[in-house]
Specification:
Arc Repressor Mutant, subunit A; 3 domains; 8 helices; single chain; flat; 49% helix
Length: 180
């Protein structure tokens, strides 16, 4: 949802858009990341040193209650933390790497098809849909594969213990030395 729409919605509700609320809204809307309350507080404090945590939590509560901000748990990657983003007009899925915490947003027709399929199958009218997918990003897949290989090669590991003796000896041979 564009920031000016959020501001208009607040005014319709009789909520004054203070300088501090403006700072928080701009940070949530334009940071390019999903911020938790503490990170939001730290960033806002850089812009206004007088801003306090209570203002951050009260503003988040007000924005959530007004349906202007979504609260996300992002697969609980950060424990019990919640993250915030302004409501977007187009639905999207959050794709979360369970190793590094990287979050990508997926927009596309498959989500709309799934929504329609659920509505028709269950006779259900969907008002809110949140989709989160957890897995490993390509970088973390590579790191995991290396770690698994390293564990296999580690002396005393189960994988190394199950290798035939000849295979183990073959690894320690010098190049060009005869087999046997």
């Amino acid at each position: 949802m564009p920031l000016d729409s959020i501001e208009g919605s607040l005014k319709e509700r009789g909520v004054r858009l203070t300088r501090q609320r403006q700072i928080l809204l701009e940070l949530i809307d334009s940071s390019g990341e999903h911020l938790d309350a503490e990170r939001l507080y730290q960033l806002a404090k850089e812009k206004d040193p007088k801003l306090n945590r209570v203002t951050v939590y009260r503003t988040i509560k007000m924005l959530k209650a007004g349906g202007l901000v979504d609260e996300l748990d992002l697969m609980h990657y950060g424990g019990d933390q919640h993250y915030y983003e302004t409501r977007l007009k187009q639905e999207h899925a959050h794709v979360v790497c369970l190793r590094c915490g990287k979050v990508e947003e997926f927009f596309g027709e498959p989500l709309q098809r799934l929504r329609k399929q659920i509505e028709s199958h269950f006779g259900f009218q969907i008002l809110v849909a949140r989709t989160e997918v957890g897995g490993y990003c390509s970088h973390c897949q590579t790191l995991r594969a290396r770690e698994v290989e390293d564990l296999r090669d580690e002396p005393g590991s189960r994988a190394a213990a199950r290798r035939p003796a000849a295979a183990s000896r073959g690894k320690s041979r010098r190049a060009g030395s005869p087999r046997g």
